Amino acid sequence: MRRIPFLDPQVLTKLPPIALKALRDVEGALAGLHQSPHHGQSIEFTEHKEYSPGDEIRHIDWKLFAKSDRYYVKQFEDETNLRGYILLDASASMNYPQHPKDREQRPTKYHYAASLALAIAYLLLRQRDAIGLLAFNSKQQHYLPPKSQPSYLLPLAQAIDQPAQETTALPENLRRLAETTRRRSLLFLISDFFSDPDQIESLLKQLVHRGHDIVLFHLLDPDEVEFPFRDQTLFEDLESPTTRLQIDAQAIRPYYLQELQQFLDRIEHIAKHSGITYHRIRTDTPMIQVVRDMILRRARAKKRP
Amino acid sequence: MNAISFLQPVFLYGLLAISIPILIHLISRRRAVRWPFAAMEFLLRSHRRVARRLRLKQFLLLLLRCLLIAGLALAFAKPFFQRAQGSSPAQPAAYVFILDDSMSMRYREAPNAPTLFDRARSSMQRWIRRNARGEDRLALLRGAAVTQPQRNEQTELTFDKNTLLNKLDAWRVTYENSDLAAAILRAQTILQKQRGVRAQILVFSDFTQHSQITYPRLTDQDILVRFFPIRPTRPAENRAILFVEVSPAPDIGQDAYQFDVVLRNFSAKPYSDLPVTLVLNEMPRARGFVHLPPWGTAQKRFVVQLPQTGNYAGYAQIAADGLDADDRYFFSLRTRKRPSLLLVNGDPRPISYLDEIFYLTNALRDDQLPFRVEIKQATADLPPANKFDVIALSNIEQLPTAWQEQLPAYVARGGGLFLSMGNQVRPEAFNVAFADLLPRQLRGVAFAAQRPDGTGVALSRFFGEVQANHPIFQRMYRDGILFQSARATKLMLVETRRAQESGEILWRFSHGPPALLERKVGQGRVLLLTTTIDRDWTDLPIRPFFQPWIQRVFTYLAGGARFHRGRTLRVAQKTHLQLPGQEPLRILPPKGVPSVLLRPEERGFPFPGAPQPGNYHFERQGKQIDSLPLSANIDPAESDLRPLSDQEMQKSGQLTQTSRAGFSSQSERLWPFLLFALLLFFFLEAIALRFL
Q: Phi and psi dihedrals of B369, rounded to 5?
């Protein structure tokens, strides 16, 4: 069997046998688990609608035409399959940690994010939902439209298996997604969100307004949370190596942690007030725990309007 | 301008170590670890917030660490503060050293330990070797009172350090008193003309209670006076003999003498059964024990029989202690044979109380008295006058001519003659017979007073004014009242004074005429009582004071006191000696002291001062002269070793502590500040690390 990068079979085997459900109505192309706002192919008839150009001819109720000499189209309660999008931040900042020693202990944020993305994709494909992918940075975007074939996992993995580079272009990509994805979808946004919170807030609100069900995975490396550095250190920005700062790490630590906490609180606040599910994840947390936690949280949660 | 100098300036190189924290700072900046990081945004934002504070903190830390190292280097360099206006340590210095070589510096803490003087000398030598530079000039004075020329003094400033050190080596401690104030004055005189130098007076002494360190300033020139106390490590234990009082002890026996030895304990330690020994003519004569309370005095009395007539030189001694010079006290005395008296009775009577010399004999015939009395009548069988010390002629009408002719020579050789009047005395014959001896010529017998009706009945007159400072009256005289209680009815008038006569009136009657006259003839004396020695003319013999008074009169005529106490001087005290003869004399000093030849001057033989305690005899042409030796003793003030308080010393100069090892704590004045500053720097660094 061909090995799929980023996908740990052990994680997959440990996934709970519970379906991942959307917490809002989502629109899908196929019939599935999730309730759709559209009237479509279903056995549950809801009403007739006068034919207008553009309606599918096969939905015309010919029996009623025979009776009334008018074209009516049959409308049914639609049980749609879920359309999911995984938005994966592939900027250079996700490449932390860079030190080989640290990498032995824990993966880079991007690696973790990729694994998480594939695990989610696997979950959705398992329950015959469609899943698409948008892996992005400021330079390029890999877009794979949602599909529900189980074999779709491999293309997804291949699309993800790119080096994380360049700066984050989270606001731009969110905006583009908001513009292009007209159907209500389940969006998994995996990023460190090192970007302007105000822009993120407005775009997320826009997406929520359009009916998307959004799940945020906020990835943080333990170094970023704890800042364990001492002595004089020359910090170099991963996204723009020319930005450097030499500083007594121990001296600045409390101020850094304060700034970071403010930022995290802000992101969490945005998520909470926009009805977005927010997961803050340290990359030293076992993947299975994160996925299980997400599934169970969603299973327990009440459906939102 | 005040200046800081350093005892160990080599440690100032340690200041270069200031570069260490700076280098560490720079190296750590250069060696900063490069670390790619994702959350740079927060770092940059934090840095923007606290960059100024961090830079300040780093600067402060660097500064404090540099100060710490500088403080440490300075502390090791042993800085001390010099108050020297208008001068700086770079200027050449003029040092006058004062070395206390007084008696108290002889103290040693243990039998073989160095004396305080030895320690002071080596401290001074060490100081000179360490601190005196080639361009500095030095002088050396003694701290003891300057009574003798001290050849090891260097009274002029010199650049030659080695000469000074050699002089110090040859210096020996003396037995004299300290006089630091005088030495400081002399030092000021030496430094007075020095301009453009740092002038310092350095005094090495034990600074005890008797040390005089308050001195006047001679000039407004800024001269630093520094005190280096050299003291025992524990409170000094010293006891001393203050003096020995010698007097006859007639109540014990004819030849008994009592020696009262007075001791003082100059320590807080009591001594019980302290042995005291009395040595006379190199022979231990008595030994006793005494209890000496802390800081107290005690007296030990020895009574010794000295039947042998002659000179005695001796000392009292206690067990030696840390300061042994004051454990002996020297004295000398002369005992004389018992004076013999000849009483010539001019008017003997069968009824004893009517006898002319009844009262006189009874007054002198006292078992307690040393006189040997012989009584004769004025007949041809009178013994030779030379056999007697005193001859009393009472109411004499006529003497054997041959015997009478002996008298002037007898008196001139030192004999005493007592003449008393009476009815048998004929003035004309008396004036002829005793022409060379009478204080005044006799004029005739007169009533003291007569009744105004002219009936010729005598009235009495009181005795009157006495010459109170004369030896025969001196100790008995109490406002004259005692002697003025006697009366006389008749008296022998004498001629008024003539220029060539040497007679002196010792006692007068209340109405003016002389009652007692004295004349010195050669070495002898003649006393003339112008009334009777019995009750014929006066009630003097039955007055209560008569007996002691007449005993004194005869003691006086016999050549003064029965014994003679030798003269006692302080060590180094100069004087003129009245010694027999005019030829040069040689002093026979105690062992170890060179003898000196004395040539007589107008005021006597000049004694140059005793260099050490002891009895000093005299010889002429290899033969010891018959004169009492001179006793030299130390000043008891030097025995008190209680130290002056630091406060008192600081009033007069700058106190500099010396330790046994040398000058390890010489810079103590700046030590506390430096240590405090170091502590402060540590504390501030901790604060900077914690809170900034």
A: -95, 150
